[in-house]
Amino acid sequence: MTDRCSDLGERELVRKITEILGIGERDDCAMVEDGDGWLVWTTDILHRKSDFPGIATGWQIGWMAVAVNLSDVAAMGAAPLGLLIAAAIPQDAEVAFAEEIFRGMNDCARRYSTRVLGGDLDSFDELALSGTALGWVEKDLVLRRRGARPGDLLCTTGTLGSAGAGLRVALEAEGRGEMEIGDPDLRALTKRLLLPSPRMEEGRALALSGAATSMMDNSDGLALSLFDLAEAGGVGFLVWEDQIPVDPLVSEVAEGRDDALALALYTGGDFELVFTVRPDLIDRARQACDFAVIGRVLEEREIFIEADGVRRRMEPRGYQHMKTPKPARLHRSFSSPPQK
Amino acid sequence: MTDRCSDLGERELVRKITEILGIGERDDCAMVEDGDGWLVWTTDILHRKSDFPGIATGWQIGWMAVAVNLSDVAAMGAAPLGLLIAAAIPQDAEVAFAEEIFRGMNDCARRYSTRVLGGDLDSFDELALSGTALGWVEKDLVLRRRGARPGDLLCTTGTLGSAGAGLRVALEAEGRGEMEIGDPDLRALTKRLLLPSPRMEEGRALALSGAATSMMDNSDGLALSLFDLAEAGGVGFLVWEDQIPVDPLVSEVAEGRDDALALALYTGGDFELVFTVRPDLIDRARQACDFAVIGRVLEEREIFIEADGVRRRMEPRGYQHMKTPKPARLHRSFSSPPQK
């Protein structure tokens, strides 16, 4: 029998690909040496079926395509140098819709002090936007997935679960044939999903603080990010359940406390930064940006979550952040060790 | 009536997009200032329907995705720093086929002294590969689309028409349900289409020679490249028909001399470099690489082709380098003026 990609599963396929390409360690960006710094460089491809719910406007779609790439630059502690976007737009799309997409891109890039410098235009049957972002960070300040040391504090920016809850709201509205969300709280949740705010200022300030020891964005959800950070750093984590900053609005959607927690742990799309901080420098980190301390780094290579004095193992699962017709959606970034 | 992208046409849509993004001049790559040089940076998205004929192997598909991006870096006179690839692979694709794609990418990158440093993996219904390549060139050596001066000599590397003829061979084979081309000459033509050789060494050597005044690759065909160079430089061209280096193999496929010439002028996919050279430095350029002198730069903003002493205007048309079910295929790269 012939092996199909869907049989193999995403992680195993990425393992094969990175082996072929000679890529070892993975970070949110690839790194290219540039004088006394690193060029950090990422690409993310999004498409209609998996990434843009029906209620998303053209402007929101454009914003998202830029935001998800900038988030990877932020996760390295880098300042952005610009973006390119390859846009595959269906030929029967309305011109006004296409223009809105590019306005959304432009507005997102400029909001974060950078620009879309160019790209490629093609037509596909399915709308797809493939972005690439470039950034720069000083060699001694770069933040990578590896670097956490036992005893470091585990931290996250912002609140969690909003995008997952927002997706639930969006899919339910779509199911009812509604294109707008009337309730302001529910609309706020869908905005967290559709208009991610990459943590550019926070990522850069944390790098400049010198207090953080490792970092990545939580685009695949907090749980999977912790598994990636643990693997890269050869460490483990203890997460304090009651310290996880679940977005209070999530309770409007979740079916009870456990469901809200699941949205915060296993939902992709929040685009917050997850990082570790040297305990003696926690005050310096607090001067860089607001964040929550949600746990600490363990020497033992296990990830536990603790509630009411009871520890259980965290599950290595990530929310499939968009429903797809097939179960085993592949979506995984891979990048290389530093290149000279 | 609502305007659709297909009604508007590709050039007008790109004009709108570049206006929204604030992009003025166009080059093969966007440019980001980097010390005493420029980072040059491009993205190209390819997909099954328009870019990969049925006879293409996975390895060839991967090679092509890397080669087309490197060609843009070559066209700026830059040395490559690396590539990223966002790959959207159908879930029912065979694992062996997916692996071949990445082997082709890896082999092409390494052939041209660079590497695929990372990427993104997703699954689409249609196979799509979105690449991005980064390069570096000294500020005083960069070659752009603008720069040609009246009297400069117009030149091209390699031979022309091969990819167009190769496409004809490939489509005819596909029509007959054949997956392999038996005749060695015809197979050589399809290889020019399926395994483009980006002119990395030539582009870099021409930049280092200091003899070239403007350059781009001919990915959309010689004719369209000349219109782009003319527009960027505010000049015109006189092309000597009998000096155009039509690939001799093209005659195996073309219906007579005019058809062979049309394949050389209006066919995309050859990935040669078209450039202008100061006439007093032509010997220095010849030390950089092999090329043909095919005409000269005019002050008058017109593009003529001359045969037997008779001048006619060149048509601004580019061969649609892959057949698509719809006529108005959009495919156009756009990039920005230099960014500091």
Automatic annotation (TrEMBL), chains A, B:
Entry annotated with the keyword Metal-binding: yes
Entry EC no(s): 2.7.4.16
Source taxon at top rank: Archaea
Positions annotated to bind substrate: D51, Y319
Domain called PurM-like C-terminal: residue spans: 149-305
Catalyses which reaction(s): thiamine phosphate + ATP = thiamine diphosphate + ADP
UniProt-annotated binding residues for Mg(2+) 1: T43, D44, D120
Keywords: ATP-binding, Kinase, Magnesium, Metal-binding, Nucleotide-binding, Thiamine biosynthesis, Transferase
SUPFAM superfamilies cross-referenced by the UniProt entry: PurM C-terminal domain-like, PurM N-terminal domain-like
Domain named PurM-like N-terminal: residues: 27-137
Pfam families xref list: AIRS, AIRS_C
Binding site residues for Mg(2+) 5: D220
EC class name: transferase
Stored CDD domains: ThiL
Binding site for Mg(2+) 4: D28, T42, D72
Biased composition (Basic residues): 323-332
Residues given in the record as ATP binding sites: G119, D120, R145, S219
GO molecular function terms noted in the UniProt entry: thiamine-phosphate kinase activity
Region annotation Disordered: where it falls in the sequence: 317-340
Ligand binding (Mg(2+) 3): D28, D72, D217
Positions that bind Mg(2+) 2: D44, D72
Known pathway: Cofactor biosynthesis; thiamine diphosphate biosynthesis; thiamine diphosphate from thiamine phosphate: step 1/1
Note: Reaction mechanism of ThiL seems to utilize a direct, inline transfer of the gamma-phosphate of ATP to TMP rather than a phosphorylated enzyme intermediate.
Annotated family: Belongs to the thiamine-monophosphate kinase family.
Name of the protein: Thiamine-monophosphate kinase
Species per Swiss-Prot/TrEMBL record: Candidatus Methanocrinis alkalitolerans
Gene transcribed to yield this protein: thiL
